[in-house]
Design a protein that fits this description.
Shape of chain A: elongated
Distance between the termini of chain A: 5 Å
Oligomer: homotrimer
Number of helices of chain A: 3
Order of helices and strands of chain A: EEHEEHHEEEE
Strand content of chain A: 35-45%
Helix content of chain A: 25-40%
Strand order of the largest sheet of chain A: 1-8-3-5-6
Largest interface: A-B, 34 and 31 residues
Number of strands of chain A: 8
Radius of gyration of chain A: 16 Å
């Protein structure tokens, strides 16, 4: 069994941002030389997400509105977590969006349906944060 | 390491439906000949879900009501994604329910607790869509 | 490829509780002797969750409040599932929090960011329930 590991680093200019990282994960897969197996791709921070959905700006603005409805950023005082922090909402938003994806590798490629794309979801940005790409297989 | 891949196809009559696919996944596992490893089972479409929960009709109707509360289908105009589409709610419902499950394989069986069953969750149906079953192990 | 399996058992005193199980999973990893691979850690019950987030009491009380807003426990009659049961809310809360996590194993350790911790999320406790730890790799 082969294994491969890489960290992808991000620093967004805004508190929240969705970034299509599919090309970076495809590069990792090529570097790994693995043709059959599984890719794990996870946020290494607990206020960020890795998820799979559509690369469509309208949907991304719907995510922003929807997540703010489910877990509003403000007032910061609504959350007990926000004593020295102001990012409780980011922990909850990431919970909705998920920490990780596992993707099949078949014949050296990400085994995706037609519109599947991998995103980094940042919910407490403006600082350097990481995604882990781990690939195992043959 | 062995690997196995199969697509399961679905075409629901209604926009939303939950289908117990545990028997199909068990058939895949038997076909694979793998006795120790992991099964990845994921929706290949971004308006559908694969998740694990109870095969109980009351709970399934609760899911329908609950998901409509969290991410209502209508009015379609409430979502920016719905310009040429009407399925933004399906993207959000699938986000809540999750894209995929990873299940342990032990002694040739899905290593499940007493009530765990795998479901295909369709949120924008009435057309042919797929689930991927990928199994790796020995 | 090596594989390892262990069940972790819990019986909480209260209906809902979050328990940091990172030390137990690290013990499993040491016992497995696996240095490169993947850990799957999942609730074996459909009213409980395994998830990764911060070990911070304020955040945990925010989770309690937030999940009660998204899927209230009472009145029990609001859910069709609650005929012989009273735990429909626990199925929905677990859906939000997720069934499982997959964690990379690198050089014999859980490959975690600085604040990642694994939690057992109990939403219908006061009885014995299980988490599965399955590790595959070399």
């Amino acid at each position: 069994m082969k294994s491969y590991r890489k960290e992808l680093w991000f620093e967004t200019r805004t508190r929240r941002q969705l970034i299509n990282i599919t090309p970076e994960v495809e590069t990792c897969l090529r570097e790994s030389g693995i043709t059959e197996g599984l890719v794990l791709c996870n946020a290494m921070h607990i206020t960020a997400s890795v998820f799979i959905n559509d690369d469509e700006p309208g949907l991304h603005s719907d995510y922003e509105t929807w997540l703010e409805t489910l877990a509003p950023e403000k007032p910061y005082s609504r959350y007990n977590h926000n004593t020295y922090e102001d990012n409780a909402d980011a922990h909850l938003k990431r919970t909705v969006m998920g920490r990780e994806v596992v993707v099949a590798v078949t014949e050296g490629k990400l085994d995706f349906g037609p519109w599947e794309r991998i995103f980094y979801g940042e919910f407490d940005g403006k600082r350097r944060k990481r995604v882990l790409v781990k690939i195992i297989g043959d």
